[in-house]
């Protein structure tokens, strides 16, 4: 079977964008960019992607041994705005390639030419331009080639999100606090996390509480209104009950939470959750937590290195309910090694019995720095079609449970190039998740690995201010981490604050 495609770019150099699109159809080892018209032979195809500037045409041609197997082109209107023109050229280059490959391979990837992380942003932009739903549907279909199912999904989500996005309210912020520790590392995970070490956690919490105090004071000085607070990781409940209590008391003491609507702790792994810890969270006004099964199949939990059983998930969930947590999220991953439709169905039946208000369904992503990537040959992973079927099972159950998709994002290296969907019951949407996805509010991130995002509404752009990821470096350079953020606050407020 002939596989290799030589790719020749003419009149443009959007190599990255073309490469990302090709990866939706074929493995990256099956195509390579060539500088000149490579000698075609029986072993390879030639794909020519061309931008003909003086005729306003983008064109793609697929050839084998001089024989044209497919050709597509688009004429486009003249635009004076160079940024808009560049965007349009990029998109039409991708569209003609997509159309050729869709016919050639006889598959229609559901996200069309879209390789970005946040598809809903497109819909928000079109809402902003004043388009109605019908026009948005048509534009998204024409410009991105998405399937009707995905178009409906992002439009429905964007409509729910709309009421939470208020980019004009510059004084509103969210705060993220990072606890990058976990009891052990799960097979698929690439999040920065460190194993529990008593001394290191003590030093880390000292540094973190200092950052909370300093940045909390800055937020107060600037009269910022904290809308949501999210403590994530890693696994925050790796901390002891006492450590959690100190952390939360420090937060309440130094951060003005008068206007806060939502305070989440991503408890995560049931093997780190105890009654005492849950009571500490409740006493400190945490009103949303996660208890993450990933799967409700014991054999998979062993494979992925989660040191707990399905029964622990059920017991912990029921304990949290008893203590009075109403808003509980559960994370699942579809496509875990060895899982098929039956197993996903079993997971969903169990979840339906528990009936959480929030459910987040991830599609397995093969992260570069995960143990899974290192040992990928040892695992039998589901193919695209099967992953799609499993996702449909989760969608059907979510619907039956009265859960509605309210936010979504995509990642690189996901099985079947699919998506992660957050579901919620009405009025239980996680506002923080929406803000982080739609990027219309400043998110101030504290702790190692936290990346603050300062939003500039007038220019509709974000400025990222990262903290270092390494815990030792974070502790050593804590003053620098604080100063980095103060500097950005200083710029954001027109140099108008007393630092
Ligand atoms: C920041 S992680 C931490 C949550 C918590 N520590 C836990 O594991 O329960 C958030 C979620 O991302 C998802 N996730 C992590 N790595 C993933 C991967 N490689 N592919 C798909 N989903 C992933 C899991 O569902 C996980 O619960
Ligand atoms: S998935 Fe969660 S518990 Fe597992 S290593 Fe990653 S952050 Fe830690």
Short description:
This protein is α/β, with parallel strands linked by helices and 499 residues long.
Helix content: 40-55%
Strands side by side in the biggest sheet: 14-15-13-12-11-10-9-6-16
Rg over CA atoms, rounded to whole Å, is: 24 Å
Major sheet: 9 strands, mixed
Tally of distinct domains: 4
Question: How many separate helices?
Answer: 16
Low-confidence stretches: none
Strand portion, in percent? 15-25%
Distance between the termini: 66 Å
| Average pLDDT figure | 92
Shape: globular
Counting DSSP E segments of at least 2 residues, the number of strands comes to: 18
User: What small molecules accompany the polymer chains?
Assistant: S-adenosylmethionine, iron/sulfur cluster
Given helix and strand content, the structural type is alpha/beta
